[in-house]
Design a protein that fits this description.
The structure holds two protein chains of two kinds. By secondary structure, chain A is of the alpha/beta class. Chain A has six helices and five strands, in the order H-H-E-H-E-E-H-E-H-E-H. Classes of the chains: A alpha/beta, B alpha/beta. Bound molecules: iron/sulfur cluster (SF4).
């Protein structure tokens, strides 16, 4: 616990208004890591394209983990990929969020039983904020997941550390 | 050329090395040949004027419990005929000569068969795993494969 944290342990006017400013800024510019893993990535691309246009929520794909806020794990996480995902996650600056998109990255999906090469849920290597069910989830579902994440960001406060 | 003509000329040229000619197979008629002469047969099929089999469409592995089989699907673009060759080796000594020098396509196909079935292609220039990580243990498409409990500290079963 730092001095600042102690000082502002109880939210006062300053903290809450700064909170809402920072949270508003964060939730309206959730830069996304530009990578896709399997069939779900196609839906993620559709969600980024003009019909669904995720960019209107400030979700802009960036090609480096250093510049992103949210990692959308879209697709099958193989064991070979899992260590790479872990490393990419470690390279993201905080605060960082993870959206797990589709059954595969939630729990192994269709490979849950015979997929000797599939990690049964990306949450075995990195913490996940929002799970989006579906195989694949429609772009609407992805956007709903994003709304859920925005809700989470909106309720954060620097006085109490986010989970 | 028809399957019969091809098989007859192979039998005439290689005699003993042609182990079985199955013309009434359920899907494609095939020829089983001895593993040690697969290279010579492949070269002959490619270079003979009447065969001109210039492409290897597919190379697959099959685990028959006790023996491993390698299946070559061949085709001639020029003469428009097809052929299926098979070789079969014991699982405890799965050595098949590589035909990479005959058809370059075989390079990655053989690496895949090695990766998933553990068929050792002798004479292959670069026999490494192609799909799985290099530190993977075992050959997953074999019938007796056991899924590992952990891989690099990650739990594998559901
Ligand atoms: S959840 Fe379904 S659609 Fe998504 S990556 Fe897995 S198999 Fe493909």
């Amino acid at each position: 616990m730092g001095l600042l944290d102690k000082q502002f342990e109880k939210s006062n006017v300053l903290v809450t208004s700064l909170d809402s400013l920072l949270n508003w800024a964060r939730l309206s510019s959730l830069y996304q890591m530009q990578f896709g893993l399997a069939c779900c990535a196609i839906e993620m691309m559709a969600a980024s394209a003009s019909n669904f246009d995720m960019m209107r929520f400030g979700v802009i794909p960036r090609a480096t983990p250093r510049q992103v806020d949210v990692m959308i794990v879209s697709g099958t996480v193989t064991l070979k990929m899992a260590s790479r995902i872990k490393r990419l996650y470690d390279q993201m600056p905080e605060p960082r969020y993870v959206l797990s998109m589709g059954s595969c990255s939630n729990c192994g999906g269709p490979y849950w039983e015979h997929g000797y090469h599939v990690l049964k849920g990306v949450d075995r290597v990195i913490p996940v904020d929002v799970y989006i069910p579906g195989c694949p989830p429609r772009p609407e579902a992805l956007i709903e997941g994003l709304m859920k994440l925005q809700e989470k960001v909106r309720n954060e406060s620097m006085a109490k550390k986010h989970a | 050329m028809t399957f019969q003509e091809i098989s007859e000329s192979l039998q005439k040229k290689f005699g003993e090395a042609v182990l079985l000619v199955k013309a009434d197979a359920a899907v494609d008629p095939f020829i089983v040949v001895a593993p040690q002469s697969i290279c010579d047969i492949a070269l002959f099929l490619r270079d003979d004027k009447a065969m001109q089999i210039d492409s290897l469409s597919c190379l697959s592995g099959v685990d028959r419990k006790g023996t491993l089989e390698v299946v070559y699907h061949l085709a001639s673009m020029t003469l428009k005929h097809k052929l299926v060759l098979k070789v079969s080796v014991p699982t405890d000594r799965p050595e098949v000569p590589s035909i990479e020098s005959v058809w370059k396509t075989a390079n990655w196909h053989e690496r895949e068969a090695y990766d998933l079935f553990g068929v050792m292609f002798t004479g292959h220039p670069d026999l490494r795993r192609i799909l799985l990580p290099y530190d993977w243990e075992g050959y997953p498409l074999r019938k007796d494969y056991e899924v590992p409990e952990f891989y690099n500290g990650m739990r594998v079963p559901y």
